[in-house]
């Protein structure tokens, strides 16, 4: 079985590039119109079609360049959507795209709406000071919109209890530095009857099934998929973290094709 350390090593970026350079490369190849149409938009649509409610507050944890949060805000214009990441490079890119879409000038109505949003979310003082000192922090007081990006640590989320009724992690969980406390924090900020949806690649897929699903793909993409599968954790590892976090009774793990989905529901 792959250990947590092995999984973390498998997620390390290329040694030939600095971390920031590799992030810029990732942004250049992932945040494109084609990727939005072929990957991110269908992913968001699949999520929303598989939950029995319309989310009013969504957290995209490990948002990267912000494409999933951006798509959710387009599909659900009345929902508050937060994209959260620990990378300044990613948040700066997300904010750069975001600023281009802000209406100018902002209306008085939007200003009042933002004040309500600020008072509705509890900001941890330590986290607020830490984030306020970061260049990429999207300050609550500057943007009057329902889509916001911010820097934060998944193990110390700067939100109050019951803040979100949908939390999404796409390819993020395996790379979290503190998986156990991140799970606890996500559940703390999850609203009653809400869901945490964790999507990863299915590491333990049988070779014959993998070959069948990838037979029409180009060799480069197949090679990339194999690397991503190797980065993932075993199901046993996911179960271990869920159990230690006290969430085993709230969680369901499902595999389908190349994908693994963990759904944690806060049912009351």
Spatial strand sequence of the major β-sheet = 3-2-1-4-5-7-6
CATH topology: Rossmann fold
Q: Class by helix and strand content?
A: alpha/beta
Question: Please, what is the average pLDDT?
Answer: 78
CATH architecture level-2 label: 3-Layer(aba) Sandwich
Structure in words:
The protein is globular, with a radius of gyration of 18 Å. The longest helix is centred in the N-terminal third of the chain and has 17 residues, at 33-49. It contains eleven helices and seven strands. It has a seven-stranded mixed beta sheet with strand order 3-2-1-4-5-7-6, sandwiched between helices. α1 packs antiparallel against α10 and α3 crosses α4. It starts with a helix and ends with a strand. With 268 residues, it is α/β, with parallel strands linked by helices. It has one domain (4-265): Rossmann fold. The model is unreliable at 1-20 and 105-144 (pLDDT under 50).
Describe the structure concisely:
The chain is built from eleven helices and seven strands. It has 268 residues and is of the alpha/beta class.
Relevant terms:
single chain, alpha/beta, Rossmann fold, 7-stranded mixed sheet, about 45% helix
Topology, element by element:
Blueprint: H1 4-10, H2 19-30, H3 33-49, E1 57-61, H4 67-75, E2 80-85, H5 88-100, H6 108-120, H7 125-132, E3 147-151, E4 164-170, H8 179-189, E5 190-201, H9 207-214, H10 219-231, H11 235-244, E6 251-256, E7 259-265
Parallel strand pairs: 1-2, 1-4, 2-3, 4-5
Antiparallel strand pairs: 5-7, 6-7
Helix pairs in contact: 1-10, 3-4
């Amino acid at each position: 079985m792959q250990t947590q350390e092995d999984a973390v090593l498998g997620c390390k970026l290329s040694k030939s590039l600095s971390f920031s350079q590799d992030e810029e490369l990732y942004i250049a190849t992932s945040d494109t119109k084609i990727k939005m149409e072929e990957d991110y938009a269908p992913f968001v649509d699949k999520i929303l079609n598989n939950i029995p409610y319309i989310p009013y507050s969504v957290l995209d944890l490990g948002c990267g360049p912000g494409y999933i949060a951006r798509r959710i805000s387009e599909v659900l214009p009345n929902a508050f959507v937060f994209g959260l990441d620990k990378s300044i490079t990613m948040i700066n890119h997300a904010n750069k795209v975001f600023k281009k879409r802000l209406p100018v000038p902002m209306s008085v109505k939007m200003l009042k709406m933002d004040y309500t949003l600020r008072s509705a979310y509890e900001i941890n003082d330590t986290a607020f000071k830490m984030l306020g000192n970061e260049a990429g922090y999207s300050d609550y007081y500057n943007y009057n919109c329902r889509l916001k990006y911010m820097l934060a640590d998944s193990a110390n989320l700067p939100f109050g209890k019951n803040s979100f009724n949908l939390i999404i992690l796409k390819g993020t969980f395996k790379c979290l530095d503190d998986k156990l406390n991140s799970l606890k924090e996500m559940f703390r900020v999850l609203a009653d009857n809400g869901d945490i949806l964790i999507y990863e690649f299915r590491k333990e897929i049988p070779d014959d099934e993998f070959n069948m699903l990838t037979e029409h793909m180009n060799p480069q993409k197949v090679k990339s998929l194999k690397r991503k599968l190797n980065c993932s954790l075993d199901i046993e590892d996911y179960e271990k973290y869920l159990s230690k976090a006290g969430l085993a009774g709230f969680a369901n793990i499902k595999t389908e094709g190349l994908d693994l989905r963990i759904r944690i529901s806060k049912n009351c």
